[in-house]
Design goal:
heterodimer; A: 200 residues; alpha/beta; Rossmann fold; 2 domains; 5-stranded parallel beta sheet; 12 strands; 22% helix; 29% strand; B: 314 residues; Elongation Factor Tu (Ef-tu), domain 3; Ubiquitin-like (UB roll); 4-stranded antiparallel beta sheet; 6 helices; binds FE2/S2 (inorganic) cluster
């Protein structure tokens, strides 16, 4: 699956450039599903990028695992979900030294959460690269109840916590790693625009 | 520019070349607090010439009872530091600006590494107090040629995080060792000669450090040069002497120009150039390389001109 091109939006909406290798610098790599293809291309551009890499992959049903493992990262680990990988990812950030490059690849939910953890760990934003691949489903925070709904594919959608009907905004929080969802019928309760599929 | 009239409360030599000055409010009022890395600009009325030099504050940022600076005497300089060393006595009154910080700590950092060369130790003396108060992890590296010249030694507290490197004693600062293995979230601050700042930048780049974690402040005083003339919009011409900056010449001619750092760093004095027949000698750290090449802007606090005619948007 090729890299996703998103249509231009407000400044807060993250954009994703293709990953570029930083040679054999120490690296932390986090990918889910189709994000594996971005790492495969990264390693094809410069195999040395794997020499000191710690790669964490969340297959989410994709079959790229064996090919990723064969790239020869110094450490390779598969996890069934982001929350299952979180403990390891946090430990890797805690142990990392300045000069470490972070590569994030896959869905916006993964990139957003990976970014939020890395920034909280002190990694400067200019040491982080991210490339979007695969599903364009969004991780949304309800601005009313603060609950997070994962894998939102329609606009509006129903908050999985408080049940409000939320409008999908392009406003993104780097701290939370989530887009903001705002009640769509606050002024006209019950009058809700037609539900559409989210576009890139 | 908001200015304060302060009394010189103490003058104390720290080394053959460096002297500490303490300023207090004449009526004992509290002075505005500041943050580590801030500087004040001191006005020096020196035999008909009004000089203004920026000095980092070295006292405790949370102590409003006075401001302290350390001044290194530059005999080859334009006279500001010589004036401070030879003319200023306890009890004198001097005008200084309120503190401004162009070199503050990034408080998002998990750890701070401070690297000071020579008199470049000064901003870190105030930052040390701030970091100690905030209980943030830090290390400080102070490099000097010889112990006799290392005025900072008298001002540094005795803490295990402070490392002194005296090159004459064979204990040179090893930047590779300092920058390797620092934990994620470390920020580095360098103050001192341009060569030291360049060496830190190079070493950090080699070790893969992102630029956003690197901060520096060069001690830039207006370089002397050959005299030149500028033309104002009105057609009036102003002569700039060899030991005068363009900003000083404009001020002496009572032409109003904004300024803050007087060292080519803050951008406040940026002035448009409407015609340039010659070459602007850009000495600032403010304009981009493209802007410098375009010769349509000049920073009068540090930059000069050679050529036939320079017309300013003033
Ligand atoms: S006064 Fe700050 S750049 Fe000139």
């Amino acid at each position: 699956m090729p890299r996703t091109e998103f249509s231009p939006s407000i400044a807060s909406r993250p954009t994703y450039a293709p990953l570029r290798p930083h040679g054999a610098a120490p690296a932390l790599m986090l990918a889910d599903a189709e994000g594996a293809e971005a790492l495969l291309e990264l390693a094809a551009a410069d195999p040395a990028v794997m020499d000191r890499a710690h790669l964490i992959y969340i297959p989410a049903g994709a079959a790229h695992g064996p090919r990723l493992r064969d790239l020869g990262a110094k450490m390779y680990h598969e996890a069934p979900s982001f929350s299952a990988a979180l403990e390891r990812y946090r430990k890797a950030l805690l142990d990392a030294k300045m000069g470490t490059q972070l590569y994030l690849a896959g869905t916006e939910g993964l990139i957003g959460q990976g970014l939020a953890e890395a920034l909280a760990a002190g990694l400067p934003a200019d040491a982080i690269q991210s490339e979007h691949r695969g599903s364009i489903a969004r991780r949304m925070q309800c601005v009313h109840c603060k609950g997070i709904t994962e894998n939102v594919t329609t606009d509006p959608f129903t908050c999985s916590h408080c049940g409000l009907t939320l409008f999908v905004r392009d406003h993104f929080s780097r701290r939370l790693g989530a887009f903001q969802g705002v009640c769509v019928d606050a002024e006209t309760p019950g009058i809700v625009p037609e539900m559409k599929e989210i576009k890139a | 520019m908001s200015a304060l009239e302060l009394r010189v409360a103490a003058v104390e030599p720290l080394s053959p070349l460096v002297t500490r000055f303490r300023f207090e409010h004449p009526a004992g009022a509290a002075l505005p607090l500041f943050s580590g890395g801030a500087h004040i600009v001191v006005e020096m009325p020196d035999a008909g010439v009004l000089r203004r030099n920026a000095y980092s504050l070295i006292s405790d940022p949370m102590d409003g009872s006075g401001y302290e600076i350390a001044v290194r005497r530059e005999d080859a300089g334009r006279g500001g530091s010589r004036f401070m060393h030879t003319q200023v006595k306890p009890g004198d009154t001097l005008r200084v600006t309120a503190p401004i910080n162009l070199f503050s700590l990034d408080l998002r950092a998990k750890k701070h590494v401070l690297i000071g060369g020579g008199i470049g130790i000064t901003p870190f003396l105030a930052q040390l107090r701030q970091l100690t108060r905030l209980q943030m992890p830090f290390e400080l590296h102070y490099a000097a040629r010889s112990r006799a010249e290392a005025a900072g030694l008298a001002l540094l507290p005795d803490l295990p995080q402070i490392h002194v490197h005296i090159s004459e004693e064979g204990n040179r600062m090893d930047l590779g060792a300092i920058l390797s293995g620092q934990p994620l979230g470390t920020h580095v601050y360098t103050c001192g000669p341009e060569g030291l700042i360049a060496a830190v930048d190079d070493t950090a780049a080699r070790l893969g450090w992102p630029k956003g974690a690197l901060h520096s402040e060069a001690f830039l005083s207006p370089p002397p040069g050959t005299p030149f003339t500028v033309t104002l919009k009105s057609g009036r011409t102003i002569e700039v002497g060899p030991h005068q900056s363009l900003l000083e010449a404009l001020e002496a001619a009572e032409v109003e120009v904004n300024w803050s750092c007087r060292g080519g760093a803050c951008g406040r004095c940026e002035t448009g150039v409407s015609a340039c027949h010659g070459r602007i000698e850009h000495h600032d750290h403010w304009l981009s390389d493209e802007e410098k090449a375009a010769q349509t802007k000049i920073m009068p606090c540090v930059s000069r001109f050679t050529g036939e005619m320079l017309t300013l948007d003033l």
